[in-house]
Specification:
547 residues; alpha/beta; Luciferase, domain 3; GMP Synthetase, Chain A, domain 3; 3 domains; five-stranded antiparallel beta sheet
């Protein structure tokens, strides 16, 4: 059976078991296998009535929900290529991507989204709201149409950190390989238990890694609870009481920084126990234990670490993290609390995943070994090259771009990396982000940005710049003071070679956002757009230093 058949079969096997949940206004609303199957059947009936056929593209534009999942599965069961789009993107950007893939119809989550698309696309294909789709009498079949491994099921548009977004085509075969790999890792984490995995989820399903987790949960014994209000994330997570959930580094960094900041403000015995317990734990990790370390660590575990862990979630076995490198210090922070952070590395073009941490053999600061069946090696400039059944067949309608991203049969990730003797990979930075100083030094900005964010409590983003210049500067956002950054940079620079010193900086109180056009849909820096927007401020930094 292919992955779609497996998911539909599992829903029919457990008709009364809750498989998906949404948090709405502080209450959990669930869907059983029967409920989700009925919605899938209704959506399939609607698609058939609309005349959409195998190989057609359909855009899916809505926030995460049980209905989003039903439409997604219904389209794939009919052999339709789903084009999921991010509801927070500007309508003009969404229309640009849809014009590229030419959908037969568009499914919208609400009237505001529908109206935004209609205003920006006068000859748009039919646009339907979810209410229309699920008002259709259900189809009578549970059987998906026959699909070959080479049949495409998804077009996911890349984030477009530079240039136009490109549509990444993913196939049945890509998913058939990936889901058993993710299931195996989660089996290793959860062990032998009759209880369903409790999973919390807040990242949009239109992103590849997020979607893979959804499909993985549906293909195993899980209950996935979806957040519906990011401003109430902490409260929703408490309701979900998850065993694990998928994260981006920014959230984990904020949790660590916020926790340590609260302890510093409170002071007293709790701060002393935390600081001494942390120092003892780090020394033990390096096999450099001192006389009273066991005492400090026991007290910190009993009084401080356990309290912090309880606030994060008493059921948490691990947190999964992807999309960008996670600061090693933050990974160690959660490990110290007894919550391992399992890192995942991959791109949309690799069906979201190339490497995954083994839950029982985590190397802090690295993203784990290549998943089974996947080959990885270093190419020119330490670029990571990958090949295997997880590699996409190409970009939609972009044969030239597809050709450029392959070296023989190896996919060029564009990421610089290194691998240790145990096969665990680490990601250094993006080749296209590489800064070349006028001195000739080549510098990946990401590790320096990571150090700055770790050192400056309250900083939201750090953007290191200096291509073609004599030294590095940085743009730093957040409600922080000039003195605070100066002090932090002294510490950061002391840990770096001289040519990597950040010698000047500009503060911006408001963070960079997707709406301002300075972040991609999944929160990555649009470096070219940032440099253009703050060109005057950057030039002033270099002029001031020369003066």
């Amino acid at each position: 059976m292919n992955f779609i058949e497996i998911i539909l079969h599992r829903l029919n096997e457990a008709p009364e078991r809750t498989v998906l949940q949404e948090v709405r206004d502080g209450q959990i609303v669930g869907a059983t296998g029967n409920d989700l199957s009925a919605q899938i059947k209704a959506a399939r009936a609607f698609l058939l009535k609309a005349g959409v056929k195998k190989g057609d593209r359909c855009a899916l534009l809505a926030p995460n929900s049980i209905r989003w999942t039903a439409v997604d599965l219904a389209m794939m069961a009919e052999g339709i290529i789903v084009v999921p789009l991010y509801a927070r993107q500007a309508p003009a950007e969404l229309v640009s991507m849809m014009k590229d893939c030419a959908p037969s119809l568009i499914c919208c989550g609400d009237e505001a989204l529908r109206d935004g698309i209609a205003q920006n696309w006068t000859d748009a294909p039919p646009i339907h709201l979810c209410e229309e789709i699920f008002a259709t009498p259900a189809a009578n079949t549970d059987v998906p149409i026959a699909l070959a491994d080479s049949d495409p099921v998804k077009i996911i548009y890349t984030s477009g950190t530079s240039g136009e977004p490109k549509g990444v085509v993913l196939t049945v075969g890509n998913l058939n390989h990936m889901l058993p790999c993710t299931n195996t890792r989660l089996d290793s984490l959860m062990g032998q238990t009759a209880e369903a995995d409790r999973v919390f989820h807040y990242l949009p399903f239109c992103f590849a890694g997020s979607w893979i987790l959804l499909l993985t949960c549906l293909s195993r014994h899980s209950v996935l609870t979806m957040s519906t209000d990011l401003t109430k994330l902490a409260d929703e997570m408490k309701l979900a009481a998850p065993n694990y959930f998928l994260n981006v580094p920014a959230l984990l960094e904020r949790v660590r920084a916020g926790t340590e900041d609260q302890l510093k403000k409170a002071g007293g015995v709790a701060l002393k126990l935390y600081q001494n317990g942390k120092a003892a734990w780090l020394r033990r990790l390096e096999h450099e234990t001192r006389g009273l370390d066991a005492v400090w660590l026991a007290l910190a575990n009993a009084i401080v670490f356990s309290t912090i862990k309880q606030k994060l979630g008493s059921n948490l076995r691990a947190m999964i993290c992807g999309s960008a490198p996670l600061a090693k210090e933050t990974q160690l922070f959660f490990m110290m609390l007894g919550i391992p952070v399992l890192q995942v590395y991959g791109l949309t073009e690799t069906t979201a995943i190339c490497t995954m941490d083994d839950p029982h053999h985590v190397t802090p600061g690295r993203v784990g070994p290549a998943i089974p069946g996947i080959e990885m090696k270093l190419g020119e400039g330490d670029e990571i090259l990958v090949r295997g059944p997880n590699i996409f067949p190409g970009y939609w309608n972009r044969s030239d771009a597809t050709a450029k991203t392959f070296l023989d049969d190896w996919f060029r990730t564009g990421d610089q990396g290194e691998v240790d003797a145990n096969g665990n990979w680490s990601i250094i930075g993006r080749l296209k982000n590489l800064i070349i100083l006028s001195s000739g030094h080549n510098i990946a900005p990401e590790p320096i940005e990571e150090k700055v964010l770790f050192a400056v409590t309250g900083a939201q983003q750090a953007v290191v710049m200096g291509n073609g210049r004599g030294f590095l500067t940085a743009l730093i956002t957040g409600d922080i003071s000039h003195q605070q950054v100066e002090t932090a940079l002294e510490t950061v620079n002391a840990s770096l070679p001289h040519y990597k010193y950040v010698r000047a900086f500009h503060l911006v109180k408001e963070p960079l956002t997707i709406e301002s056009g300075l972040l991609t849909a999944n929160g990555k820096l649009k470096r070219e757009a940032i440099a253009e927007r703050f060109q005057t401020e950057i030039e002033d930094l270099y002029r001031a230093k020369k003066a």
